[in-house]
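Comment thread on ticket #2218

A.B. wrote:
> Attaching the input chain for the structure job we discussed in standup.
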Amino acid sequence: MSLLLALVLAQDTGRAQDPAILESLKWLARHQEADGTWRAMEFTARCVGNQKCENATVKHPPGDLGITALALLAFFAAGYGVGSADVYGGLDFGKCVRAGVKALLSAQQKSGWIAIAKQEKPMYVHAIALAALSHAWRSTLTQPSTDFPAEKFAEAVQRAVEVMCTGRKTG
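C.D. wrote:
> Ran it. Output below, let me know if you need it in another format.
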């Protein structure tokens, strides 16, 4: 619910200042894995202190790349991008975004697919990851990053779009 709240309420309105949105993003930042991804099944391992999350029972876990892309979309919708330098309670939102984007970029295959082996619903995950990379590219226009220049995203997004177009023609 908090992810949806961030996506809906903060869309393109600049930096989100609503306490509920900031708390949602801080939760996401605290639960990000060291490799930049967010995981559907192991997120409780990242809980700290007395604030343990309930361990949700997920019978059919979605792809972690899809979860990562959705988490990134929440940050982008709230106005944080690859060049953000905002820190809340010791949580660096820009660092979270850059790590998540790096995870998506490293999962992109030479063919343009954004996927991992044995992934369920690969086109679904690919499409969400493409949306997140497109927003990352867009964020470089207002928040430039030396680590992630716009040109880096242009090529990755183009290859991912070509996969979508090819899938449409053949499927």
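A.B. wrote:
> Thanks. Noting for the ticket: Confidence is low (pLDDT under 50) at residues 1-11.
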